[in-house]
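REQUEST ID: PR-0412
SUBMITTED BY: lab tech R.K.
PRIORITY: routine
TASK: structure prediction, single protein chain
INPUT:
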Amino acid sequence: MRLAIIAGSGVEEMELATDLRAACVETPYGDAHALVGRRGGEEVALLLRHGAGHSVPPHRINYRANVWALRELGVERVIATAAVGALTRELKPGDLVVCDQFIDFTRSRPVTLFEGGASGVVHTDFSEPFCPEVRAALLGAAEPAAAAAPHDGGCYVCVEGPRYETAAEVRAFAILGGDVVGMTACPEAALAREAGLCYALLAIVTNWATGIAPHPLSHAEVLETVAKARDGVRAVLDRALTTVPPERHCRCRGARSTANKPPAPGQPNS
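STATUS: complete
OUTPUT:
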């Protein structure tokens, strides 16, 4: 299979594929669990980012195992979804954003597949953090239904979580150029690039962030808003999966140094 969906909060409950079967993949970072099924006539991998029953908080997700597992399954292109808060009133709950940049404020997560030693030292080009070809498929996917058209571009600010942000943090993120804030795109996007995968992010605005929202935030509100956006999200994913070009002409696969590659399964990093 060449395509995968990483399902974030709320989206994990949607019926994203049929004929699902479980796949457990052994990786150097532990076992990763995915589902394999069919979508639009093609076999796809479905990875529930937070695990079954939304049981894994954002700072405890095994991002390296998840990305490694997708590569082992043969995946080349990944569409990830994420619930986010808006850092500006120009974005409103229910809006979709195809992000084009991010700022990483996480602090305790393993951030690379290259830890030196046998895996070498690799500095990955990240001037364009999301695959332009997969982004184009997402943006073009909603053209027949303009009301659900995603916003083209947006800077995703990734925080550690699992707590929500303070009002002061939200103001600072906006000053720095952030448009939305979430807890999961980093290091996921960087690891995907290191693994040679094309990766794009469909962000679902579920609320205005702290200090903008008129009331305290809650995870229940997140799930409620994603549920309301279900039809639009599924329509975008459906069309994007069928319009992603079969051949890759982007730089994602070759962004890392060609002299290095992630260690083979079971090979130590150092």
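NOTES: The helical segments are 63-72, 132-140, 167-175, 185-194, 219-228, 230-243.
REVIEWED BY: pending
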